[in-house]
Automatic annotation (TrEMBL):
Segments of this protein annotated with the region Disordered: 14-34
InterPro entries: DUF327, TM1646-like_dom_sf
Pfam families cross-referenced by the UniProt entry: DUF327 (PF03885)
Organism of derivation: Dethiosulfovibrio peptidovorans DSM 11002
Official protein name in the record: DUF327 domain-containing protein
Amino acid sequence: MAAINRISGERSGGVEVPLKGDGRAVSSSGGRGSSFDQTVQIMELEALFKELEDVGTKLSSVPSTAIMSRYRELVRQLLDRALKGVRLRRDLKWRRGDKRGFLVVEQTDAWLEELEQVLFRENSRTRVLRLMEDIKGCLISLLF
């Protein structure tokens, strides 16, 4: 039993993933809270952002309704995850007048609508790329 305690107290075999925003690393073998869950969530978010970028590239080169709906779906998934985090942060530490998260969500929705209009009416590639970057920026500021 003593050997098990000694081994479990060591920090060997852990995977460290840097968290964006605070500069600290999360170790999967120990550390802050549920670090394995955090690592999995970060990996899922990175995969969603990668897919969002890939779909955005396709959308800017070949605008279509199917690709636009996939792009919108990915943004919605990321917004849902961000809103869950905002609710959790509000439950843990509520700040009076903290509407930043919801304003960013509203702005992201407005940019999605504008992106769809630009794609199918104006077909301005530079404006499309700028709007997609603005949307990603909003998502990043909400999630990290």
